[in-house]
Amino acid sequence: MNVVLPDNSKLELPEGSTGLDAARAIGPKLAEQAVLVRANGSVQDLRLPLRDGQQIRFLTTRDSADPDALYVLRHSSAHLLAEAVRRLYPGVKIAIGPPVENGFYYDFEFPEPVHEGDLAKIEEEVKREIAEGREWSREEISRDEARKRFEAEGEPYKVELVDTAEGDISLYTQGDFTDLCRGPHLQNAQPIKALKLTGLAGAYWRGDEKNTQLTRIYGTAFYSQADLDAYLERLEQARARDHRKLGVQLDLFHFDEHSPGSPFWHPKGMVIFNELEDLRRRENARRGYVEVKTPLIYDKTLWQTSGHWEKFRENMFLIPLGDEHIFAIKPMNCPGHMLLFGSDLRSYRDLPLRYAEAAPLHRNELAGALHGLTRVRHVTQDDAHIFCTREQITEELDGCIAYLRDLYALFGLEPRAEFSTRPDNKLGTDDEWDFSEGELQKALERHEIAYVVGAGEGSFYGPKIDLHVTDALGRSWQLGTIQLDRQMPQRFGLTYMGADNAEHPVFVIHRALLGSLERFIGILTEHYGGAFPYWLAPVQVRILPVGESHREAAQALAEQLAGVRVEVDESDETVGKRIRNAEVEKIPFAVVYGDKESDESLAIREHGGGQTTLSLADFRAKLATLSPWQAGAEPSLTS
RNA sequence: GCCGGAGUAGCUCAGCUGGCAGAGCACCUCUCUUGUAAAGAGGAUGCCGUGGGUUCGAGUCCCACCUCCGGCUCCA
């Protein structure tokens, strides 16, 4: 048979030759360094046979940054970890150990608790295995045989995996350790030049909290020590962008143990919060939304009607009033908006009706789930509910998606879209879900938005289009969401009078585009590394009078900059120190004002170090262009 | 909520085997009057997360709780 090499030459091989055979045919060095073969674009274990006509390319230890090459390295590292743990902890049961984004993990059930301090000794054992040399071999066996084998070894998790595995069962063995595994794996442990165990965590078997909690050991591995060092260095730098750290440094907000998960917004943080609120109000008004305000607390009966009492009660803060009544603080605005819509007879002429409200919501999140601004109990969404007819759904979804695109473009954020379908605890019939999911999916496709499907990730009342972004440390967070709902209006008996003088069911689109303002500001802080763009910056301009004699002129200059968030730094520090302070506080512009300056000539320093000289008039003109909202400019959001 | 780790000055952190609570930055005072990323001198700063226990004596050892951090689960 023939395979095609990257230079388009053909390599003649005996029938049934494996990737490794092909590498040997090319050269001994390649055979030694190869870690994977890419056959017609998909990666394959070197031990598996090639097929006639395949286009092949080898990945070697030199492809040290290739995701597939790292994946196989880390997958094999996970197996070494399991081998080491089994040797060090007799009686341990092994579960699963895949490679992940930045490393790998393996889940174990330990006979006794394991602590972080134990990692050093385990890591040492893994490194010993690498030094000793390990080679992987692959075999395929029948399901029954595999089952017997793992039963005999006392590995119940592996037995369960055999029972639920699809396709053929393959095993990989290194040293005296054999694992159920689809592969692929390295030939041997030599390419693993740097390995580090990074953490310990509890993790539920198969991700279900009803199952046993296993102990997960995380690690990472690279083809060189330099790559590992660079990775650790990147982590260190990412930590400096962490919004929780920057939030304190920049005096934006803080948390207090008397109200876990609820930020205290400081004056500077509130400037950013209010700018986003202004943006929300201005754009909503332009796009035909009306703003409303509905109560924060409601009697339990409302939540029973909406379905929250059944589906969301654990996440609500309850207020018992006497023996009879229980109130709950709202975790969402929708039920209130349903009551508002239902407070009057509605005609088809009233629709679509777009209610916007950014009320404080409270969700009693699990203590362990709280996370800075990105996971809070006090949530403020840029929320709205669009009440419309069935015929209006398409146009309204289009409007939401266009709005969403404009907003994210303004911040230079590039979120990933997820289409979340019916969950296990859904309300309503499959027919209704078919319709709603179809509408959302068609909207995504109309706008040619790439998305992944989050099967079962939808809300209990409807499917969602969600937008996800990644934080400084690589964690994914959901921001905006667009949800199509026919459950809730049905439950509240909401209808409108049509042109045919008959009542028709109302549809509701729930949408929050920035998501929660708290989370959005957290993500923005990391996105900008704390150096907010001019229009969001808490302090936009700081004037530094060189000496005492310049203070008066500096104050006069500040007054000339009416409408700009400007400060005069009259502290008794050297100019150098005050420049440094302005830089550390990431203020967009620092203006040094001394004997050489006048309204005709200002020394402007931009954050980061660039310096220019501008007249006051030119400076003001420049600032006006930096703000989409100030100086009476038309908003830059166009659609 | 679950597994693991941590809580010492406003911030970052040191404090050994139980024996008088520390440093740098920030803050305050004074001197200097400053020219684009840290002037100098002096000073104040603590419920050592909270509550209990062991001990002659606890920041240090033990128990419980709270909060935070890394994960899991859940979620905007």
Note the gap between the termini. Answer: 58 Å
Classification by helices and strands: alpha+beta
CATH topology name of the largest domain: BirA Bifunctional Protein, domain 2
CATH superfamily grouping of the largest domain:
Bira Bifunctional Protein, Domain 2
Q: Averaged pLDDT, please?
A: 93
How much helical structure, as a percent, in the residues? 25-40%
Q: What is the subunit organization of this protein?
A: single chain
Query: Judging by the overall fold, what is the CATH architecture of the largest domain?
Result: 2-Layer Sandwich
Major β-sheet, in short? 9 strands, mixed
Number of domains: 4
Instruction: Report Rg.
Output: 30 Å
What is the overall number of helices? Answer: 19
* CATH class label of the largest domain: Alpha Beta
The coarse silhouette is: globular
